[in-house]
Amino acid sequence: MPDKDNSYKNNEQEISVEVDKTIPKVDFLKEITAKYAIICEGLFKDYEIGNFIVRAVDNVSLSIRNGEFLVIKGPSGAGKTTLLNLLGGLDTPNSGIIYSYGVKISDMKEESLTTWRLLNTGFIFQNYNLISTLTAEENVMFPMNLAGVTFKDQRNRAEELLKKMSLSDRREHLPFQLSAGEQQRVAIARALANNPPMILADEPTANLDKKTSQFIRDLFKELKDDINTIIIATHDDYLINLADKILSFDDGKIVNEEIIRKFE
Amino acid sequence: MSSFDFALKDLYRKRQSNYPFLFMIIIMVAFTEFLIYFTSSIGMNIFIQPSFLNKYYFSGGISLSYRQFNSLIQVLLIVLTIGIILAVTTTLIISKKKDIAIMKSLGTLPQKLYSFYLLEVYILFFIGFLLGLILGLIVFGIFSLIMILFNFPILVQIDFVYTPFIFFSCILGIFFVGGYLIRKIGKQKIIHAFSKDIPYNYNAKKPLVFIPKWLTSIGFNIKIAVVNTMRKKGEFKRYLILFSLIGLLIFTLGLGTIVLNFSSREWINKSQNENIVILGHKDVVYNYSLMYKMFSDPTLLIDGTNINFTESKYFFNLSDVNDLNSIEEIEEIDERIIYFCDVQEKPGIHITEDGSYVIVGENREGNIPIIGVNPENIIQDFEIKGRFFTQEDAFDNMTIGDGLAHNLFEFPLDQSLELIGLSKTFHIAGVVIDSFYSGWCGYVSINESRNILNLDNDKVNLILLKLSSGTSQEIYEIIGNVTNSLGADFTYLRLDQVFHQNLTFVSFLSVYPILLILVISIIAILSLYNYQKSGIMEKAQDFLIMRAIGSKTRSLKKILFIESLFVLIPSLLLSLGIGMMINSLFLFEQVYLPPLSIPFTFFIFLFLIFMIFNFLSLFPIIKKINKFSVKDFSLY
């Protein structure tokens, strides 16, 4: 049950959200899940190199609504990638809590987190990270294969996605046979394969030519309408302009939060 | 996509980088298989014993030494084969680390990762093993044909011991070692898994504890080489073990070969002597020479069915050949009576090391040649354990050959031999290394033989003459005349050719270890090349940057050369130490050990050879680097 001050206590920290005091705990979680894709509180992430500690994320708390297009911007080395990795379940914080669709992922064991990641996120890496020995089509099919989709459906979906990416005629090609822009498009197709509720992208237009960057920008604009939640770390002004909320990140901290579109 | 489907695709599509691994497995398996079949075909395999017509073939003390040595080499080689296969498969898995990390990030569970990559490793191993097996058998087949052309008998038996052992050991090894590695990577955090052989939280500031600081201050190239080696500990450890095994094998082979070859030639020379002529009935002379030839011919068997040496027509009086005493060139005359006899091992009491005693002996029987000799003028100078009987104790003592000792007795010097049917038992006073009848011969006093066979004191059926070297044909004619005086059926025969054949056989036994050394050296070069090549893609990017800044190719060569040196020197030193211990533990106790300078000279020779190979292997590597451009890194 929530306390008088509208805070919900857990074992470690308080999470402050606006709640209806009359709603019981189970329903409270349902409401959180319905409204929020991510809630995190007091996140810390340190990297130890010998005696030297690099604090990449420093006491970050934020909430992301379902369907929100969040942009995280900031200078190089601010900690954007680390924050993205934490939100996407690729890494776990040293302390703090992350709830994603009502599931506390910050304490999850690696295996559970892996399965969670497969079904709930589509991650687009800055350096594409395609599996080097699989063709474009096979790379897109891979997450569906893990999710137990039938081969026929995998094939159809992969074809559909690659067609969307204008890569139908390149589906039999290996990553090294594709240009940077083409690899990035395959990576986006792969991220969309299992229809995840959340897409995370780390500098998706970095190091790409103007034409490809524009293609990807248009794609994200389209995704904004199709996909529930998008979180992007970027310097791209066009993508920033698509945002519902912009977080300015520097030195591991959120230095500014700009709400462009308020959610009811 | 099934695990099998992925494994095949990954293996085939990255074949350029997978081929060296496959090649190493094929070479190692082929070589090991060849060695197994080769050694068993010449009777040197303790587990695979071919059935030769000559059941006494290669069964004496020398064969025991060579079998022990061969067993040691085979064990080391099998360990090396398994070691190389595991190192190769481990390196293959580590090269997939980035792909594993990507799969993890997409949501692949550790069990699935395990099935993808372990299956791939197993497929590579199965293909390599099968091709290696086929290649090894083909090479052995060609070798056999060549040997048959040279009239050297080769026998083939299918190996049901070593090959399955290697196969299943590798299966288990890959499961535990490779499987452990994949499980470890699978359980790592993704960020950690994206870092390759350098640990994720590597602290570059931390001083290099085992490397003295002054070493890195010698030069930039050495510093880079030191840093590269220390940061990739996993790779360094793998190749250190590998090169230590290779060095150990080569060192053991080389030293063992020198020792055994020297010793065995010496033993056989002593047992045969030189410039020996035998004189007697033509049947006796002929069969006697063949009984020497049995040492090196597994298809030859002379026994009591071929000749009965005790037939009266074979005997003559010693006094009938007194004229031989006047020939100056004849240094010694050794009168003998030879006969086949059924014998039985008699039990004896053996005192153990702790002072207690055991009854030893199993009453084994055999039919062997007994030679009556005069111990005072026997022409051979045998390598002996125990002592040769004397005139004084000849009535109940005898000396036996090593073949007889090793096969019919447990502790021959504590036991006796009964001449069945002749009611005579002799205590074994000594065991000699003997090439006659492959060492299955017993030596008793000639007088005792005469008593046993009811012969007059002067009777003999064979005489051995020791001639001085360079004896002229005239002397042989005189010997011939003396022989003819015994009768038309009597003759003489020079044993040089047979003795030479036996010595050649002993020398031949050393050919195969030398061949082994050559092949293992080739394997060492390939492993060295692989070591330098394996990290080349990560290094290549650094090298390209260094070159862009202004570093010369010479510097890059130096860095690679020094890195390899850091692996070679400790592994050679390790192999020297362990090799010396193994050789002293396992070689036959009667072996003549060389002076200490020989193993050290051999070590220095080995070191120089490896340095040359190290230098030569740089050329293809540098050529590869020079062809790179930044674009190539997208391949990897």
Task: Provide a descriptive summary of the structure in words.
The complex is a heterodimer of chains A (264) and B (636). By secondary structure, chain A is of the alpha/beta class. Helices cover 34% and strands 28% of the residues of chain A. Chain A is globular and about 45 Å long. Chain B has 636 residues and is α+β, with helices and mostly antiparallel strands. Chain B is built from 19 helices and 14 strands. In chain B, the strands form three sheets. A six-stranded mixed beta barrel of chain B has the order 3-6-11-8-10-9. Chain B has a two-stranded antiparallel ribbon with strand order 2-12. A two-stranded antiparallel ribbon of chain B has the order 4-5. In chain B, a hairpin with a 5-residue loop joins β4 and β5. The longest helix of chain B is centred in the N-terminal third of the chain and has 40 residues. The radius of gyration of chain B is 32 Å and the shape is elongated. At the A-B interface, β3, α3 and α4 of A face α1 and α4 of B.
- Percent of residues in helices of chain B: 55-70%
Q: What is the N-to-C succession of helices and strands of chain A? A: EEHEEEHEEHEHHHEHEHEE
* Largest sheet, spatial ordering of strands of chain B: 3-6-11-8-10-9
Determine the N-to-C terminus distance of chain A.
24 Å
Q: Pair with the most extensive interface? A: A-B, 35 and 31 residues
| Strand content range of chain A | 25-35%
Structural class of chain A: alpha/beta
Shape of chain A: globular
